[in-house]
Every structure is written in structure tokens, then in C-alpha cells.
Structure prediction request, 177 residues.
Amino acid sequence: MTNTRSLSGFPALRKHNSVDMRAIIVEDEKHARDNLIKLLQQIDPAIEIQASLDSVHDTVAWLRSNQTDLIFLDIHLADDLSFKIFDQVAVSAPVIFTTAYDQYALRAFKVNSIDYLLKPIDKEELAQSLEKYRQTRRPAQEMNVQQLLQAFQQTGRQNYQQRFLVSRREKIMSVKT
Prediction:
């Protein structure tokens, strides 16, 4: 993994292999951030950490000009509670909250949260959260592929009647076309 600067000027951590998922980490404690990155690398090296941010202000700025698949979000940040982010920018990516405070769980699930992990983060629980994320994404992706395939098959194909009912000498016969 190498440290680089993203186009937005925020630090980005890039992997040298294929990317399965893009994520950002919003955490103001260096030790907690480094531990989360280490756990993510152990669980799935194909996760690209696009940015590591430590404040509401920086996160809002990053989200206004970038997109991500998943957000790991601490609650108490350097400048405010992370819930302020949702007041300032539309967040479409699912969020996994990573915090030491359990009293915000209900509030977290009102803002794109798919999981709520208490620090210190357990590797097994983090792996389950990532699987939960993948499960929520899989049906939509599969459905889109199926819809595209059906649309492609329908394109240019006209529906002709395949059978006709014909009356002949008081009998009705089915004639295939």
C-alpha cells in the first residue's frame, strides 16, 4: 500500500491489486484509524481506502467532490459529531459506524447505517459487517444484469403469434406458425 494524494487533495491509500470496493475512513484517532486499516487489509486486501479523514469539515468537502462505496465513520470527530455530515451533504453510500459510544446506535441507523461497531473493533465483527454490505449490494447488481440481459434479448425481436386457432368442420384445431 502506498500513500498518495487524491485529486481532491486529501490523502488516499491505494492498493496495487484489483479493487473490490472503495471506502473512506473518517476517524480522528490515529491509533484507531491505523487499526481499522490493518484489519481491513487482513480481511480483504482488495478494498481500496480512498481517503482517511478526521473531521466533519474535511469529510463534507471530500464527499461533495467524490464518491465511495462504503464509509467507516467514527461519531466523535475533531470538530463535531459526525451526524453533522448528513446535515451538510447528501450521503448515498452506506455507513458502518465505528465508535466507542453505544448511546448513538439508534440515531446512526437513521442515516444510511448498515452496522454499528464498538471499539476496540473486533476482526470477526468487521468481517461480518463487510459481508452484510456485500449482501445488500448483490441483489441490486444481479437484478440490473438480469434486466439488461432481458432488454437486450427483447431488442429487435418482434412478438409474432406462435399459434392460431382454426375452425374446420366443427372442430377447433391449433395451428403452429
Observations:
- The CA atoms of residues 96 and 115 lie 5 Å apart.
